[in-house]
Amino acid sequence: MAVDPVPTEPNDEPVPTEESKVTLARVMGVMDANNYGDVHGGVIMRAVDEAGAVAAVRHSNGPAVTAFMDQMAFLEPVKLGDLLTTHAQVNWTGRTSMEVGVRVTVQRMGVEGEIHVSSAHLVFVAIDAEGQPRPVPPVLPETELDRLRFQEAQIRRTTRLERREAIRRLRAQGLD
């Protein structure tokens, strides 16, 4: 079976944030939970990564891999039988990378409305057929909320780069 080649040059046309949005949902089953009926954090993290990857692939029109996940706090437990939903979208783009925001909610039997469980920000890198980074089109934030998310993503990127450089400098000092 032939595989279509991945584009190597980006489409310079900005892609509206709306085009990357994705919602994935599934009911949490016995294999997802511990003996107390609470869903394992790793199961939720996997759902976040999957939704983020779909948004990144939609935006970049090809494969993308997870490069980084910002901290993730669990605000509420997820229970056996809950409908876990992940909402993801691309917030910011660089040359080959994209920040994707993911919000996790659950619907619980007997409880009205959605319960916010967690939020996370992930960085994905678009890759070509050889697994090398490839350019991505710029994101076009169209709403006030999307513009705010874009600006927040720039702050997180700066913080990530500063932290990485500080650690690199510390390690370059060597151990005695």
Give a verbal description of the structure:
The protein is of the alpha+beta class and 176 residues long. It has a single domain (15-172), classed as Roll (Thiol Ester Dehydrase, Chain A), CATH 3.10.129.10. It has helices at 41-60, 144-172; strands at residues 15-16, 22-27, 64-69, 83-93, 97-107, 114-126, 139-140. The protein has a five-stranded antiparallel beta sheet with strand order 2-4-5-6-3. A two-stranded parallel ribbon has the order 1-7. A hairpin with a 6-residue loop joins strand 5 (97-107) and strand 6 (114-126). The termini are far apart. The relative contact order is 0.21. Residues 1-8 have low confidence and may be disordered.
List the helices and strands and how they pair.
Elements: E1 15-16, E2 22-27, H1 41-60, E3 64-69, E4 83-93, E5 97-107, E6 114-126, E7 139-140, H2 144-172
Parallel strand pairs: 1-7
Antiparallel strand pairs: 2-4, 3-6, 4-5, 5-6
Number of H/I helices: 2
Over the alpha carbons, how many angstroms does the gyration radius reach? 18 Å
CATH architecture verdict: Roll
Helix and strand content put the structural class at: alpha+beta
Kindly report the spatial arrangement of strands forming the biggest sheet.
2-4-5-6-3
How many independent structural domains?
Answer: 1
Overall pLDDT metric: 93
Low-confidence stretches: 1-8
Strand content: 25-35%
CATH class descriptor name: Alpha Beta
Task: Spell out the key features of this protein.
Thiol Ester Dehydrase, Chain A; single chain; 28% helix; disordered N terminus; five-stranded antiparallel beta sheet
